[in-house]
Amino acid sequence: MRFAIIGTGFVADYYMKTLAHMDVLELAGVFDIDQARLSQFCDYYSVKPYASLDAVLQDETVELIAVLTTPETHYDIVSAALAAGKHVYCEKPLAMNLDDARKLVAQAQSAGLVLAGAPANAYSDAFKATSKALQENKIGKPKLVYAEMEDGAVFREKWQEWRSWSGAPWPGKHEFEIGCTLEHAGYSLSWLISLFGSIKRITGMSATLFMDKGVEIAAADMAPDFSTAVLEFENGVIARLTCGLCAPKDRSLTIMGEDGTLTVADLWDHSSAIFVERKDQPLSFIFRLFRRLEALRGRFMAAKPHAGSRLKYKAGKDDHLPAYPSRIDFAAGIDAVRLAARGEGKSPDQLAREALHITEAALVLNRIADHNGRYEMVSSLSQ
């Protein structure tokens, strides 16, 4: 399927890296309103630049548009692409408010087009292994989940010097204005809703705690750099989700079931380590050894091996993936649109509902104070 990319900023390089193994996707060209950046990107990857957004939309050979622009531009570009008869894959979130996101889903459905949204980390081998382990009742019925999406105090690093492979600067100022929750909660939410279904209710708080981000931003323009919430799922599972730019890096997922615990080390790793601890099996020898050392020393040891055993699963080749810390198959999300358009994989309705549900939840988590700390979800994966 021929597709085009709109937006050649920092994240676009991750898509280009993972496109290398997607011979079913043909990149027709790219467009960006920043002509200097567009030229830099096209020179680096030897791809065709489009002269305008209209030129992309009028290209009848292009069936799919990947919208990789900044969040506040998503609605207008996605709507224009759908109006032009193109399938769309959009970076998160679909829109900056729920009403606009719902309009996009309705527009896609009315036109018989596929609309899907990032992130793509739930297409990973680690996710498939986790889903299979739950289906096989490895830890019994899931009851409680701890989801961590802490990216570390990046504002204390030399982020102003960060560049993508093709030379795009990391958009730190804009990231701090949009907020780490709106940017990153989706990585946890995509796993959570794919494993446990629709979210019924969100209760929590968000706050802006660190005002010095290494760049001048008015206090009123600074988005929350911390959020924590309890997500109640329609199936009874309870999840605690924390997002932030404050605590040490931690992108793990811990699922506690009636018969044990399953821990995914890193949701940004396509083939992440997964550990399973069952109540009817002994703790790992190395963990028991460390626990004995704790007793002998009379002090808690923060760094210990996992108590369970490592889950063995078959992972595919991953040499096409970006290096740590973003070992995600970004292009898999675009391919999901291609498959849905051909009646394979997830259906168009499922992709649209997932994108809408993730968008709604992320918007709420980012500004949950606007809802007095408690919110009843409007969207559902079944409607």
From TrEMBL:
> Tell me, what's a Pfam family for it?
GFO_IDH_MocA
Q: Name one GO molecular function term.
A: nucleotide binding
Give the signal sequence positions: none
Every copy of the GFO/IDH/MocA-like oxidoreductase domain together lies at 129-262
Q: Where does the record place the Gfo/Idh/MocA-like oxidoreductase N-terminal domain? A: 1-115
The name this protein goes by in its record: Oxidoreductase
